[in-house]
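Tokens as discussed.
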């Protein structure tokens, strides 16, 4: 199964993904945790271009294509081989991040970004997408409190950018109801982790039948 963790920056999805990975591993699942952009060396090299704070003049479409290129490399080198070995793949961000950030917030259009990415992934979509939803105001408050977090190029965006991201994510969750589960990320972390774990367990059980 291929499970993705989505949400605006500061939603806590990466922290939750790590906790879930540890829990599933303890339960004896054959599980891997990876991230986008990145996950493998070439994709990480592309990530460095994307997050570099000096690259503020990066064109929107170039950005979208770089995310798709990074995704393709990560998929063929890491995700698909793991799925073929019947592993449970947890991924911090995937195609929906591009739809929300480049399609929605960058105003390139969700359909345009979807087409580029379906070409890159050969139509592969996650089995389950967990969306950690909270207001951009609360997300930015969390980011500012977390001194250990890397500050990247996308953190330089204004709050309206994140509002548009969130709106697009919520629209996607209504469009892809079969794979999306929306989790209120403003709740205490332990509750969010527990809710996530229950959803994954329930989905795994359903898939077994």
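Sequence:
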């Amino acid at each position: 199964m291929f499970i993705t963790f989505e949400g605006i920056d500061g939603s806590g999805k990466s922290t939750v993904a790590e906790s879930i990975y540890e829990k599933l591993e303890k339960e004896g699942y054959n599980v891997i945790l990876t991230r986008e952009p990145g996950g493998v060396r070439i994709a990480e090299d592309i990530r460095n271009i994307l997050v570099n704070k000096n690259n503020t003049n990066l064109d929107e479409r170039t950005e979208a294509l770089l995310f798709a290129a990074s995704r393709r490399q990560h998929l063929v080198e890491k995700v698909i081989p793991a799925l073929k070995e019947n592993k449970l793949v947890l991924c911090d961000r995937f195609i929906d991040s591009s739809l929300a950030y480049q399609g929605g917030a960058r105003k390139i259009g969700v359909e345009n970004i979807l087409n580029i990415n379906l070409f890159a992934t050969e139509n592969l979509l996650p089995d389950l997408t967990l969306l950690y939803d909270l207001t951009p105001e609360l997300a930015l408050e969390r980011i500012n409190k977390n001194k250990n977090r890397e500050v990247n190029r996308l953190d330089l965006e204004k709050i309206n950018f994140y509002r548009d991201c969130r709106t697009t994510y919520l629209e996607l969750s209504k469009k892809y109801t079969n794979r999306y589960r929306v989790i209120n990320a403003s709740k205490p972390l332990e509750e969010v982790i527990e809710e996530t774990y229950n959803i994954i367990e329930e989905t795994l059980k359903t898939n077994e039948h």
